[in-house]
Amino acid sequence: MKRIADYAARSEKGDSREKNEDSWYANPEMGLFIIADGMGGHHGGEIASKLVVTRLPELINDGLLHHIDSHTEDETLDKLSMLLKELSTQVFNEGLMETGLHGMGATVVMALIHNGTAYIGHMGDSRLYLYRDNQLAAMTHDHSITQYLIDTGAITKEQARHHESHGRISQYAGMNGDPLPAVTSLTLQNKDRLLMCTDGLTGTVEESSIASLLEKVHELQNGCERLIALANQTNAKDNITVMLVDIN
């Protein structure tokens, strides 16, 4: 089977964390790439993020890929939104199975690449960027308290990094209630690069610095390692996961 894209990924727990609650998944033949950032007491965060990267590929394979060629783009996005909601329900129900896991959850950001289009979905503050023609553009918009305050003009982006609500998210897999996943599509071009990451990167490193590094570094694995090193240089206090995807 032809590889739809080439990728590299790297995940580190960061200097201030005892464990890594991030998880990632990549299947270049399927064209599916996922990152999740877990949260919850005990081992809840680790379990929630692992559930995301194991259950979502199954849901997409069974509920979308078999019929995707007969769907319109809007129908595909609607179905993707439904599957992300189902994922959230599954994570929530797993959290009810054990007392110590109550309230566990995870962000999710994913891209499904099919016939020259990237179908993008997310909940939370893990992000997906498009790097094209030396320009970095965000394809997701954080579901977070600080992003809402930025949008309403209450605080600046710089103030958000140190705000008391930094890290609090409004949508995630495993939440109690119906989530509102964001879904969109992107028509891909040759030599496009996708950057997917948790807030361990974007919470400390400016987008301009990320773009500058991507302009200089072309090899995928080296790019991931350099981005994580950049986050660590800025005293990253969170788990850091980075994935780079080059479109074939």
Descriptive report:
The two termini are 13 Å apart. A hairpin with a 4-residue loop joins β2 (22-27) and β3. The protein has a single domain (5-247), classed as Phosphatase 2c, domain 1, CATH 3.60.40.10. The protein is 33% helix and 27% strand. By secondary structure, the chain is α+β, with helices and mostly antiparallel strands.
State the helical fraction.
Answer: 25-40%
Q: H/E element string?
A: EEEHHEEEEHHEEHHHE
Count of domain modules: 1
Q: What is the mean predicted local confidence, pLDDT? A: 93
- How much beta, percentage-wise? 25-35%
The fold-level CATH name is Phosphatase 2c, domain 1
Query: CATH superfamily membership, which one?
Result: PPM-type phosphatase domain
Radius of gyration: 17 Å
Topology overview:
Layout: E1 5-12, E2 22-27, E3 32-39, H1 44-63, H2 73-95, E4 105-114, E5 117-123, E6 127-132, E7 135-138, H3 145-151, H4 157-160, E8 182-187, E9 193-197, H5 199-202, H6 207-216, H7 220-233, E10 240-247
Antiparallel strand pairs: 1-10, 2-3, 3-4, 4-5, 5-8, 6-7, 6-9, 9-10
Helix pairs in contact: 1-2
Tags for this model:
5-stranded antiparallel beta sheet; alpha+beta; 10 strands; 248 residues; Phosphatase 2c, domain 1
